Amino acid sequence: GGVSDMDPPYVKKKSRHIEVGDVVLIRRDQPFPADMLLLESALKDGTCFVSTATLDGESSLKRRVSILAMEGVTRDVLRALRGTVTVEQPHPSIDDLEGRALVRDEPQTPIGPYNLLLRGTILRNTDHVHGLVIYAGFDTKIALNMRDPPSKLGALERRLNKLILLIFALLVFFILLCSGLAFQNQSQSGAAQWYMGSDNQQRSPSAVFGQSIGTFFILMSTFIPVSLFVTLEFIRIFLAWFMSVDRRTTSKHGTPLVVRSFNLNETLGGITHILTDKTGTLTENEMVYAGCYVNSDIFAPGEKLWKISEPSERRNGELFIQSLCLCSSVYPETLSDGESPLGDARQGRVVYSGQSPDEVALVQAASDMGFAMLRRETNNLIVDDFGVRKRYLLLAEVEFTSERKRMSVVFRMPDGSIRLISKGADEVMMPLIQFQSDHKLQTQKAIDQFAAKGLRTLVFGTREITPAEYKAWAREYEAAKISIGGRDKLMSEVGQRIEVQLEFLACSAVEDRLQDEVPETIEFLRDCGIKFWVLTGDKRQTAESIGYSTGLLTHGMSLVHVSTQDPSRMARLLSGVLQDEKAIERSNRHQEVAGSASQRISIIIDGKSLSVAIAHCRSLFLAVATGCDTLICCRVTPAQKAEVVGLVKTVRNSTTLAIGDGGNDVSMIQEAHVGVGILGKEGSQASRAADYSIGEFRILRRLLSVHGRYAEVRTSAMMNMSFYKNFVFAFQQFLYQFHDFFSGQTIHHQWFITCFNLIITLLPPFALGLFERDVSEGSINRFPRLYGLVRKTNLFGFRSFFEYCAVYGLWHALVAFWSSRWVLGSTITQMNGQDNGYAVFSVAVTSLVVIIVLAKFVLVSRWITSFSVFSICLGMVALFLVPLLASALGSHDLRGVQYHLYSTPAFWFTVVLAMVVAFIPDFVIMLWRHQGSHNISHDVRMYEKRNSSRDSEA
Question: Where, in this chain's numbering, is ATP bound (predicted)?
Fold first, then answer.
């Protein structure tokens, strides 16, 4: 709970009783119970620091600013405070807030996310704060974000739903057929069946038909594998647990794999396309300053940026270093000062924190070059300017957005001048800068050189503005800041009016190193038959360089650059590429026969061209993209990423996986069939929105090739056998009706019907679903093609349903019924001369069904474990114990049946005969698959057996 109301003493309230308008006191390390605006802080500059790790996973503290533009706000001042606060309606975006505050006679103050203390965040490094509640209860942003993620169905589950409909259709068919035959039987011989009683003789055929529908529905309902759904959910939970506890799915930083969508485990085994972000996904997102272009030259880290003899070069160099620090949202923290994070640099080491790793790297570089940020106050920046402490007054800030791709600040410099500093992506900054002579061409060349090395670049521009110009612009900008509704757009439009006629300062370069084993992981997954598409906001040269460093691009492949906004030219370009792809495909087929290396083609397209291609040449672009080896989309927005994923999903038999680490990747992660989030330095938005969360890109290899593939193999085997065992068991009821005049008499005793799925065959499906393996993990790593084989084979579907039910199931059911019928049904087989009755025949049929079904489980298992053996043994023991248990609990019709049946030699002869006859089709089909067609899995298993035998001999 919190403490609210300002008249002392404070009134304690539980969080659920806090209302809008309350002023709440929160102390250090306490969570905020509602969404509040900061009024007063224990820190002198009216700021505080909060931890948002519970919301976005970011470990860095966030700085929040008081809405009261006055110094020395005390509790007495707060008690006497009168004013009006206007904010927008509640919405779930945690990074957006628009409003304004009018306090006393002060001018209106804009309210933004920098004033907001969100519910669930925690106060850090600040003794206490007072906040004004603006959203409470279900209106808070964390509550509005508590909604179910988009529902996703795996391919296996979609096929399962279709097969369940087929099973229902078969059930209806059997019910109507048996009811119709019961109708015919009653019409032809119902009156002659005097032994059935007078009630039966008097029933009309129509009444018999209606009653038979209900009877046969109950009798044959075991066709529907109800236990399958329960088994499937438990197996998915266990397989997810196997993934989580696997040490090889834990990152080097100790981040474990987290499974949030159990129902997609099998889908991981059939991925055809991986669409990946670059920064933080393929790279470490640990930015390191790598140099700059200034004074018409490129400088490496540590090099002096000017010559002593050139004053103009010194001015440009110093101004660039200052811009690295001033044009940022980074704040310093002094580690040795326990009371306040904003201590003097001389008291301890200063570290920099910020939401952008690029900015932190640049500010640290400025500090290393002599311009160190010491303290950040409300509108002041205290810096060590080449050994001299100076104060820079922040007059205005036009924030960075993904649409603007730049940020600008206006400072009053120590000498009294007003200076605008802007930085951003080169494609938006270059048109705003006035270059001299051929300097623009040289600058672009330098940018391209940085990008060719895979470095991230920012262009810096500046100009000095007059007080009159600033005053006129500031008036419009302040009005835009206090507007409600479309504030961001209006602020952007006003900001653009001052970002003109800039003077070029420099271009900075930051290196983002590749994560461990990224090239090896990509190579392996491509060998598995998976295509890679890279979707990044970086410039083309940077994306291309990363493509080469990761192995997605090679110097031997044909690389096509698509860059045009003309629809007709786009169509001609894509048509030409499509013809090239077809020619290369034909050439590759001939080269495979000749044994020579094949050719490949890859495409790089920018965001603007991508919009044109999708809008005007959608089908053509899709054909070209799916036919190429690698597609790299650069300069794309989050919306375009999701659009591309949706485009790939329209391709037949495609299964997409999107992987990213930032908030801008959430849309594509949610759009893909499977979303994987990397918990990295950009927070946990992608991780929380994803179906699977990992710590490093390399873990994707094991997640797909081992866990995903095994999940597909195991779940498919389990579902095939679940359909099979229920079909064999239930089909006996249909066969028996031809021997009892379709009266609805059951062939299985009620105890066996109850215990068949519940006890007798409970564990064998779990043994398949949890531990089945067609090949070992080592073979999967040695032969990546095994991954694609699972997808192409389609282990579970209509084909496998037909095989397991219409072939194995039907034949095994016929063998179990007719062998029992012929040998035991009408002959005197007991040693005392008694004839076998219905009870003996019933138990015989059920026993044969169970024995054949359990034997089939052993036959399909390619990885026998102790749990597999235990499950089969338990099923056999349960088969013999069920009649004893039924007799003990009062079921007299089973008493003594086991003794008479199992002591009869004819029964055991029937078991042997039925086993031999029943599995003839199984062995024929198995032999045909292993010898009559090329089977990679079989070849690998033979390879494993040969190696294991050699090892044992050695």
Answer: 277-279, 359, 400, 423, 456, 536-538, 635, 641, 664-665
